[in-house]
């Protein structure tokens, strides 16, 4: 995430910064957006995880009874 924060800082010198996250990248753009909120104009979630109530994708998967796999594809896994 540190590299993305640096890119936002660099890009802000050229104009408006819009972050776009797809799938698991939603967690990254959320973190970057919080880290440099004054430099980001918008955050776009394209079919992405947006962790606002829980700290991570793994925590959301736990609520579905899915354990041990913190990937978006895990949502289609069978419950054990």
Q: On the 0-100 scale, what is the average pLDDT?
A: 83
Silhouette: elongated
Major beta sheet, specifics?
2 strands, parallel
* Subunit arrangement of the protein: single chain
Structural class: alpha+beta
Count every helix, treating DSSP H or I runs of 4 or more residues as helices: 3
- The side-by-side strand order for the widest beta sheet comes to 1-2
Number of domains: 1
Measured distance between first and last alpha carbons: 33 Å
Question: Which consecutive residue ranges, at least 5 long each, have pLDDT under 50?
Answer: 74-80
Protein name: Esterase
Could you characterize what this model shows?
The protein is α+β, with helices and mostly antiparallel strands and 80 residues long. The chain has one domain. It is 36% helix and 16% strand. It contains three helices and two strands. It has helices at residues 2-12, 25-35, 57-63, and strands at 18-23, 42-48. It has a two-stranded parallel sheet with strand order 1-2. Strand 1 (18-23), helix 2 (25-35) and strand 2 form a beta-alpha-beta unit. Helix 1 (2-12) crosses helix 2. The longest helix has 11 residues, at 2-12. The radius of gyration is 15 Å and the shape is elongated. It starts with a helix and ends in a 17-residue tail after the last helix. Mean pLDDT is 83; it is low at 74-80.
């Amino acid at each position: 995430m540190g590299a993305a924060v640096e890119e936002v800082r660099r890009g802000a010198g050229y104009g408006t910064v819009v972050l776009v996250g797809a799938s698991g990248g939603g967690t990254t753009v959320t973190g970057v957006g919080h880290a440099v909120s004054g430099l980001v104009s918008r955050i776009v979630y394209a079919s992405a995880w947006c962790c606002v109530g829980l700290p991570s994708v793994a925590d959301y998967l736990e609520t579905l009874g899915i354990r041990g796999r913190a990937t978006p594809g895990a949502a289609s896994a069978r419950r054990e």
